[in-house]
Specification:
single chain; four-stranded antiparallel sheet; two-stranded antiparallel ribbon; 20% helix; globular
């Protein structure tokens, strides 16, 4: 099972912040691997502290299946869902709802998926 969340990302090339879609753990499925790009976790400001014990140094971000050089942003979630459903993934709404309603909060949770 995979967890899909969103994360603010500093795009240094375009000099802007983006809310991208990420996945954890690192996918082993080749269908997912084909639309994942591992990118470094950038500090959002010079005042941010790095907490290596709490966060990984890299993010497994989704790229647009049609434009593989473009990271998928949350406003493009329909592209991701369409790809997942076309490739036999299950969007587990029951587990997602349980986690959203529980006292244990997963920050920026979008959903859980499996195959």
């Amino acid at each position: 099972m995979y967890q899909i969340t969103s994360e603010i990302y500093l795009d240094k090339f375009n000099k802007c912040y983006k809310k991208i879609i990420i996945i954890s753990p690192n996918p082993t499925d080749t269908t997912l691997k084909s639309i994942i790009k591992t990118i470094p976790r950038e500090k959002l400001s010079p005042y941010d502290e790095n907490h290596p014990c709490c966060q990984t140094r890299c993010l497994n971000a989704f790229v647009n299946p049609h434009e593989k050089c473009e990271l998928l942003c949350v406003n493009q979630i329909s592209i991701l869902f369409q790809y997942l459903l076309a490739n036999s993934f299950i969007i587990n709404t029951d587990i997602t709802k349980i986690m959203q309603d529980s006292d244990v909060k997963i920050p920026n949770l979008i959903c859980f998926i499996s195959k």
